[in-house]
Write a structure and sequence with these properties.
By secondary structure, the chain is of the alpha/beta class. The chain has 4 domains: about 5-160, Rossmann fold (3-Layer(aba) Sandwich), CATH 3.40.50; about 175-285, 2-Layer Sandwich (Transcription Regulator spoIIAA); about 290-405, 2-Layer Sandwich (Transcription Regulator spoIIAA), CATH 3.30.750.200; about 410-465, OB fold (Dihydrolipoamide Acetyltransferase, E2P). The chain is about 30% helix and about 20% strand. Strands 3-2-4-5-6-7 form a 6-stranded parallel beta sheet, sandwiched between helices. A hairpin with a 5-residue loop joins strand 17 (about 410-420) and strand 18 (about 425-430). Helix 7 runs parallel beside helix 8 (about 275-280) and helix 11 (about 345-355) runs parallel beside helix 12. The structure holds S-adenosyl-L-homocysteine (SAH), iron/sulfur cluster and FE3-S4 cluster. The site of iron/sulfur cluster has 10 residues, from helix 5.
């Protein structure tokens, strides 16, 4: 059996990485012409954007794409490790692919993304899923053409220990013609005790500002109206590269390109400073919408989570944003059932939520991840209790989504028109504060920004019509 050279990213020392300009070896161009790929993406925006790059590369190789796994020649799963159910879904789909391979011997099956960086997953694939042709880590998917070629003769497992050379000029097939994701920082150095991301994505690496601005300018030329600057912790941007250039300066430079809309995610409260808030408040093309995960309202749990802020510090930042940025919508992430979370801790979270009245919130039951410090803690919270807490939390956050939306009824909001609904003359898009708006209007142009008068508020969306 071929034994893979398997090295997983685990070091916590300062890393040295190099920048590589992507270039496809011409021998791979159109090599797979006429072949079809079924690409399934799990996880966050970073993975979605990686899949756009993966599509860009596979298109150069000649692949077309299909939503029907049965007609695929290549099944590629871009996976997520954040919670156990993400794992289960990917393994479920691998089961389907195995079944298909029994009747289609030439089918190539590959796994990439965050699960590919987990030793436990890779070992499981080697021992129990030998029909998987290749596993390729998050730092080296740009080597897909070579890996595909090698996997024709034997199983390939390529997980890099080098924590990600930074690849520029990757081809991309973007899902939207109007909105684009732009990576500004890879990896994460925060090591929150429950989180697997620093292990799957490696240390913090910022892209050079010139490369980011070049990409944004070329998106503007192609007609893009909105960019979302991406990173697991965008507020740490530049710390590994520059002395005096942070997210605040980058946002200013991006705002000065005059692209109509700028968003950024995700923000870590610990790295958010006043200058960043001032810049967001100053430029009308930086959208007043911030995702600011809190995770818990209990100082005891925040400490166990390694979040580096107290409830009080979070609230001070939150209120400063609300004061300084007009009409600012703030969303959050919350975990319930962290090991040792008592009813009092949970009530602290509820009291914080009642104070913040978030515009949106993603709520999760804690899921132990192998290799993270929290996975070693014993939990006294029962499954039923966790589910009860999640249910109660959701009930409360949902009322605020609706309340915040109701405040917009009778007001006019700018909406980037993204698509047409099934109903006649009905369109949809997102407001400046990132709310989904369904609206009617005549001769509305896709990709334009129109003023929509809000007529009805729902929990997760707004209805309206074009006009004042
Ligand atoms: N970098 C971002 C997002 C990370 S993942 C941040 O720091 O906020 C998105 C969300 O998944 C996290 O905010 C957290 O709420 C949740 N999450 C991460 N690890 C988890 C785990 N082990 N169990 C449950 N939820 C988790
Ligand atoms: Fe994970 Fe924390 Fe980093 Fe977010 S900041 S990716 S939760 S370690
Ligand atoms: Fe999942 Fe990896 Fe993103 S673990 S949330 S796909 S960084």
């Amino acid at each position: 059996m071929h034994l893979p050279d398997f090295k997983v990213a685990r070091s916590s020392t300062k890393i040295d990485y190099k920048k590589i300009d992507y270039k496809l070896n011409p021998k791979y161009l159109d090599k797979y012409k006429g072949k079809k790929c079924y690409l399934k993406t799990y996880g966050c925006q970073m993975n979605e954007h990686d899949s756009e790059n993966i599509k860009g590369i596979l298109e150069l190789l000649g692949f077309d794409f299909t939503d029907n796994m049965d007609e695929a020649d290549l099944v590629l799963l871009n996976t997520c490790s954040i919670r156990e159910n993400a794992h289960n879904k990917a393994f479920g789909l691998l089961g389907r692919a195995k079944h298909l391979k029994q009747t289609k011997k030439d089918l190539i099956i590959g796994l990439c993304g965050c699960m590919a960086q987990e030793e436990i997953v890779v070992n499981t694939i080697i021992s129990k899923y030998p029909f998987v042709n290749f596993v390729i880590g998050t730092h080296n998917f740009y080597q897909l053409p070579e890996i595909l070629e090698k996997s024709e003769s034997k199983q390939q497992i390529e997980v890099y220990s080098r924590e990600g050379d930074l690849i520029e000029d990757l081809p991309a097939d973007r899902t939207s013609k109007y909105k684009a994701y732009v990576n500004i920082i890879y990896g994460c150095d925060k090591f929150c005790t429950y989180c697997i991301v620093p292990y799957t994505r490696g240390r913090q690496r910022s892209r050079e500002k010139e490369d980011i601005l070049k990409e944004i300018n070329s998106l503007i030329e192609k007609g893009y109206k909105e960019v979302t600057l991406l990173g697991q912790n965008v507020n740490a941007y530049g710390k590994d590269l520059y002395d005096n250039y942070s997210l605040a300066e980058l946002l200013e430079d991006v705002a000065n390109t005059n692209i109509p809309r700028i968003r950024f995610m995700t923000s870590h409260p610990w790295d958010f400073n006043d200058k960043m808030i001032e810049v967001i408040a100053k430029y009308p093309n930086i959208m007043p919408s911030i995702h600011l995960p809190v995770q818990s309202g209990s100082n005891r749990i925040l400490k166990l989570m390694g979040r580096r802020y107290t409830k009080e510090e979070y609230l001070t930042l939150f209120h400063k944003m609300k004061e300084m940025i007009p009409n600012c919508a703030i969303s959050t992430d919350i975990i319930v059932g962290f090991p040792g979370e008592t009813e009092e801790d949970f009530l602290e979270t509820i009291s914080l939520v009642k104070e913040c009245k978030y515009d949106n919130a993603y709520t999760f039951i804690y899921s132990p991840r192998v290799g993270t410090p929290a996975a070693k803690l014993t939990s006294n919270v029962t499954k039923e209790e966790k589910e009860k807490r999640l249910y109660k939390l959701n009930e409360i956050v949902n009322t605020y989504f609706k309340e915040n939306n109701e405040k917009l009824v009778g007001k006019t909001v700018p909406v980037l028109v993204e698509g047409i609904s099934d109903k006649k003359n009905e369109y949809f898009g997102y407001s400046d504060t990132n709310k989904l708006v369904n609206f009617t209007g005549d001769n509305v142009e896709l990709g334009s920004i129109v003023n929509v008068l809000i007529t009805t508020a729902k929990t997760w969306s707004l209805d309206g019509k074009v006009g004042k």
